[in-house]
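Write out the 3D structure for:
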Amino acid sequence: MNTQCKRRFRRRILSWFRKEKRDLPWRRTSNPYRILVSEIMLQQTQVAAALKYYRKFIRQFPTVQKLAEAPIDDVLKVWEGLGYYGRAHNLHRAAQSIVLRHGGRIPDSLDALSSLPGIGRYSAGAVLSIAFGKRIPVLDGNIIRVLSRVFRITENIDDRDVRNRLWGLAESLLPRKHVREFNESLMELGATVCKPRNPDCPHCPLAKFCEANGHAVQHELPVKTPRRPIPHYDVTAGIIWKQGKFLITKRPPKGLLGGLWEFPGGKREKGETLETCLAREIKEELDIAVRVQDHLVSVDHAYSHFRITLHVFRCEYRKGKIRMHGCDGYRWITARELDRYAFPGADRKVIGRLKAFS
């Protein structure tokens, strides 16, 4: 694409964006902290899902200092239901690092910003261009799709060389001014027009520039590595009662769903009944014996790389002193206290039933 064509490209997409952009709260601010929060939330999450969490998060933690000072349990509780909880841990650690090493100011250099937990090349570029107006490209899933179609890139976008080529294309298109709007316009186009399925090519401001559209191959691009079949697991959990209270346990801070509370249990092994699995898992994890009683509910839940069916049983504590193996804490609580704790999505589905039953 020559220089004149690039100018027309920029004019078309900027004009479209100024007329068609969605009114989003992080677009009404240049506050680097708020933009950082929005970018972390939008990783692997649709805008509609992130909106209410963003507003709630900013109310609870209006500044990076407030976030840094907050206990991680409070951060996870506000994040509860948004998923990918490693983002919340990383954002909390990044806030603490910003306060400790940068005087409470979001750094405005690529090296400093990229050194913070959970902030990669894309997130750093987004914050620097949107909050600080730096002439730095961004490359998220939406922009990858737009560029792959406009330039008819038929190679696998998961290949490192192809991804570097896309970064180069994104940088070559940057205007000297209005970088924030330009980067946001590419993201917006991918999110609302150049969608993964059924792209709205007749209403695309870049249709005349788009080689994929010209060759009628837009539905075939971008090319990705095929996803492997998603495995399914049966998992058990127990509502273990003792003297009018039931037991919850806290997951270790690192790993899947780190720091969240859950009803104790675990994955069924081959040949086990659900009841046998649950009793075994409770013994292995907490060193206590329980009597598995009636089945309460089974719920299906999907994670990024696997799916589960969570089978929940009412249990009666029998004997033993709790010794934790593989969990980070425990509490005996009542149903009224459930809302104080942050739970994973599958357990949250169970809580509604438990409250009604209690």
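The first strand starts at residue 232 and ends at 242.
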